[in-house]
User: What shape does this take?
Amino acid sequence: MAQFPNFYNKATGDLLSGSPMYIMLALTLLTMLIIWGLPKLTKAVPSSLVAILVVSAIVLGFGIDTMQVADIMAEGESIKGGFPPLSIPQLPFTLETFKIIIPYAAIVAGVGLIESLLTLNIIDEITETRGSGNKECVAQGTANILSGFLSGMGGCAMIGQSLINTSAGARARLSGITAAVMLLVFIMFGSSLIERLPMAALVGLMFMVAIGTFEWASFKTFGKMPKSDVIVMVLVTLITAITHNLAVAVLLGVVISALAYSWENAKRIRAVKTCGRERSEAL
Assistant: This one.
């Protein structure tokens, strides 16, 4: 859903039509086709990278007029940046400060941990390994604390980036380190190249990430699961997609699960059979 605005004219807000729409659709489908088909031929190179390079070469080589990364940015903005400055937050260490910060901190931490552990679970399924959720939580918390002293904002594991890495054959920490270092290089030295990338290539890539993230096998288990579990699964998915608020969706899911459990538990009748007066008095 986050990619759909790229199919609209930024100046007028109208849906693309004619040649611009056909070009956008063709390049997006080509990107998805390469990402889907290349691994069937060879896994020597990441299919996502090949797709972006091929589509970019077509656009730049033939001079095709299509939306680029620079077109979706506000006038005067650039992705170019530098090393963040070291800074210590100048806030009064009082109870009033904590009352303001803690609610937002709890929401950010909750959403961050949920997404990180979800990402860990998906990667474990793909790689058939078992990661450590405790280490992930401690590492994420430590990194976010240090990020605050470098003028940064809180973050968490990225499902999209993780799936791109694993689909390219990554199985070790080096893949994540390489992605972070190269992102830093692009921001500091290669911003002019990144801004010329066609949005169609990135849209197609994100579509494939969304398709790969979805647990399609869930549909096969619907008939074997309790109806309450199916309702919770569908409801949480819809709320997350509509509101883009994972915290609210998970909270509602927990509440509905608790109510369903209470209802099922209340329908059961328990009887304790006792023998003898002493046993009855003890009970």
About this structure: The chain has three domains: 1-78+190-214, 95-189, 216-283. Residues 1-78+190-214 form one domain. The mean pLDDT is 84. The longest helix spans residues 95-127.
